[in-house]
């Protein structure tokens, strides 16, 4: 894989992904719908594979599960960039629309499909998970 890069709308925050995403999904939870006014395409990555330059601010909300979800955004333009869960600090979520080349990834599943509005266009070729899926397994270490 070549590195993937991205930025916020104003360019004050840049990021680089140094490894392949562990999962790429369209999330239909109500929080993502509030953030994106639609489903949100997200990459789940190893936290240490995400390099960020520039200042980000965070907003913390308690999820239905009781986990603390920190959503990170650019304080200058408000672009939603990343999310992290207190239950899974080894992972970070990256909003795919902020990649320099969003076509370099392809979602493989719809998650929280039970929360999608009736008008949502869910690709029937993608795996459908009604709520939160199990976390992805980290790839085996190279030997």
UniProtKB/TrEMBL annotation:
GO function term, MF aspect, one: metal ion binding
Q: Which UniProt keywords apply?
A: Lyase, Metal-binding, Zinc
Q: Per its UniProt record, what InterPro entries does this chain match? A: CENP-V/GFA, Mss4-like_sf
Tell me the Pfam families matching this sequence: GFA
What PROSITE patterns does this protein map onto? CENP_V_GFA (PS51891)
Q: Where is the CENP-V/GFA domain?
A: 4-120
The UniProt similarity line reads: Belongs to the Gfa family.
Protein name, per record: GFA family protein
């Amino acid at each position: 894989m070549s590195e993937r890069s991205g930025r916020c709308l104003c360019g004050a925050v840049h990021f680089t992904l140094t490894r392949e995403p562990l999962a790429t999904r369209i999330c239909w939870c109500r929080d993502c719908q509030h953030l994106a006014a639609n489903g949100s395409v997200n990459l789940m990555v190893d936290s240490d594979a995400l390099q960020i330059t520039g200042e980000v601010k965070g907003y913390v909300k308690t999820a239905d599960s009781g986990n603390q979800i920190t959503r990170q955004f650019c304080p200058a333009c408000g672009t939603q960039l990343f999310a992290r869960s207190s239950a899974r600090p080894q992972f970070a979520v990256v909003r795919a629309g902020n990649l320099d080349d969003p076509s370099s990834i392809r979602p493989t599943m719809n998650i929280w499909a039970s929360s999608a509005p009736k008008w949502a266009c869910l690709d029937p070729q993608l795996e459908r998970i009604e709520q939160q899926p199990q976390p992805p397994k980290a790839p085996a270490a190279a030997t």
